[in-house]
Amino acid sequence: MPIYKLLTARRILLQCILLSLIVLLTGCASKYPQVTGDQVQAEQDFDYLIGPGDSLNIFVWGNTELTVTVPVRPDGKITTRLVEDIEASGKTPTQLARDVEKAYSEYVKNAVVTVIVDSFVGIPSQQVRVVGEAAEPLSVPFRKHMTLLDLMVAVGGLTEFADGNKSVLIRNQNGEQQVYNVRLEDLIKEGDISANLALMPGDIMIIPEAWF
């Protein structure tokens, strides 16, 4: 089978799986509980972890020739002017800075390195995903104090075909997957702030299409 036909078939299969997931979860959305009050103001403490697609500034104190901006490759690694294939994904900027210092120790005496993240993608478990009837379904890097309203602004709101009040939020809590009903239509179209809530890293929002 030609490669382009194989890729098309895989794409169609993934779309069918996604559609089935949306129908399965949102078809009985009323059975899922609402997000509780303690989750509306949920504690959002987390340390940002570098992910593929991030842009990093590797700053070496007192050595401008080694200071460089590099992308994190899809394999999660970076290459600097002295060392190739340093694992970066899944580390905090501070952890990566210590690893770069160790790698540079062979070439630079007492290297002091600072890692600054210039653009953010993050690891998948720290992204918030939106699928279904959002204007622009996408993955958004989680940031502290992020709310449902922030997320909907980022994806451009709902499409005209969305059934916002039957949307569901999938969240991992203590190693278990929980599903909650959320009221996106009340939040966006009615301005009901009580429908807003604090998001957590890894949250998935599924927005179904209205059945007319």
Q: By helix and strand content, what is the structural category?
A: alpha+beta
Query: Which sequence of SSEs, written as H and E, runs from N to C?
Result: HHEEEEHEEEHEEHE
Gyration radius from CA atoms, angstroms = 21 Å
Tell me, briefly, the overall form: elongated
Strand count, sense and barrel status of the largest sheet are: 5 strands, mixed
Descriptive notes:
The structure is a single chain. The protein has 212 residues and is of the alpha+beta class. The protein is 25% helix and 23% strand. The chain has helices at 3-26, 37-40, 93-104, 148-154, 184-188; strands at 55-60, 68-71, 77-78, 86-87, 113-119, 127-132, 139-141, 167-173, 176-182, 204-207. The radius of gyration is 21 Å and the shape is elongated. 26% of the residues are buried.
What's the topology here?
Blueprint: H1 3-26, H2 37-40, E1 55-60, E2 68-71, E3 77-78, E4 86-87, H3 93-104, E5 113-119, E6 127-132, E7 139-141, H4 148-154, E8 167-173, E9 176-182, H5 184-188, E10 204-207
Parallel strand pairs: 6-10
Antiparallel strand pairs: 1-2, 1-5, 3-4, 6-7, 8-9, 8-10
What can be said about this structure in brief?
By secondary structure, this protein is an alpha+beta fold. It has helices at 3-26, 37-40, 93-104, 148-154, 184-188; strands spanning 55-60, 68-71, 77-78, 86-87, 113-119, 127-132, 139-141, 167-173, 176-182, 204-207.
